[in-house]
Amino acid sequence: MIILDFEKPIFELDSKIKELKNLNTGDLSIIEDVKRLENKKNKLLKQIYSELTPWQKVMVARHPERPHTSDYIKALTDNFIPLAGDRLFGDDFAVIAGIGKFKGISVAVVGHEKGRDTEDRIKHNFGMPHPEGYRKVCRVMDIANKFQLPLLTFVDTAGAYPGVGAEERGQAEAIAACIEKSLQFKHPIVAVIIGEGGSGGAVALAVANKILMLEHSVYSVISPEGCASILYRDSEKAAVAADALKLTAQDLIKYKMTDEIIGEPSGGAHRDPALTVKNVGDRLKSALFGLTEVQDLKSHRLEKFINLCRNYG
Are 191 and 212 in contact (CB under 8 A)? Predict the structure, then answer.
């Protein structure tokens, strides 16, 4: 497991526990020492993760071993059929999209995919979509509208890809069209921010009736490093910028930018991906079924974001 800087005391305890377990002598005193150290580790884990700074939460949200969109789709959907391409330029592997069954209900699913190892991350462009990725999302929304399917979205991106090619192919227009399409969508949309929700690249997939955030996920208008470069002319001040951005789930629920926080296992989602996926599935089901009582989902979504603009615009 990749160890974050603030987790080093936990790593040291883990190392001691492994050393004692490797002795394997059956000595009762060693068994007691292992239990004592494990209790100490669990308490320390809870303490550290209950006192995370915004910058530390950013590091947790970016942890490569957190569950990815592909993990949620694999575990939570049946008969998933991936859809590819935007019918204009090509396919974008930074966005996974398709149709499947969730809890017995036919749904459309879209989400950012960052990839795991180096080769996979390059293939998925580190979860930063090109315009064709957002146009693929629009295609899926058109299909979902036609067949009256709810839409589930998984948000995990540092932002839209800022390269020259992406700009030449209309990155800003593609994001705007995706947001417009979301506001016109007639059926339920539930979004889950599973890691990093960065800038318009995240908003394009998060214009939803219900927005859920994992406990240690983040959602912001710009990355802390980008903000620090602009405001302080120094990207090294990312920790200061992270605090100013109010990007944590706990901050955002106060401002009604998100609707619900989904708890993570002690020590973050990367320590127990299976439990995290289960928790997200349970909350997704609850949110989706809760929207059946809403008469006009399009108006509900539109009013939600108009109010946000009135209050914070």
Answer: yes
